[in-house]
Amino acid sequence: MKLTAYSNYALRSLQLAALRSPDLVRVDDVVRVHGLARPHIVKIVHELGQAGLVETRRGRGGGFRLSHPAEDIVVGDVIRLTEGPLELVECFNPERNSCPLIGICKLSRALHEATKAFMTVLDELTLADIASNRGELLSRIAPLAEGIVSPMRRAR
To answer: Where are the domains positioned within the chain?
Structure first.
């Protein structure tokens, strides 16, 4: 299975928001930390906001933050939002299927089961889980996050 870069960027944006919670994260923070293109992150944050996963604040001092606790945001749900239906092969979509083996193909059944198992794992994973090693993650991105004031640094 291969997820799109869009899904990866969405998860990275949410992960950074979880690490910085409850503070706002700027789009430029995500761009700087992960070396991504700003227009992509703007589009992703907008979609995450439309889906109710983040709240956004425009203007100077604006940014985005999680709308719900990180432990309530399921990675599988984010993937469904960003990927849509996972159709590994054409027969997964009955409207576009042209395969004469539909209904009897063991390969199709196996791929369907593999996709289901993949999503089951992601459905057991929350944003809190992927941000649980907070100290390690923040120290790794610290050199990349120059100019971002970490909540840990502010507390000193």
So the answer is: 5-150
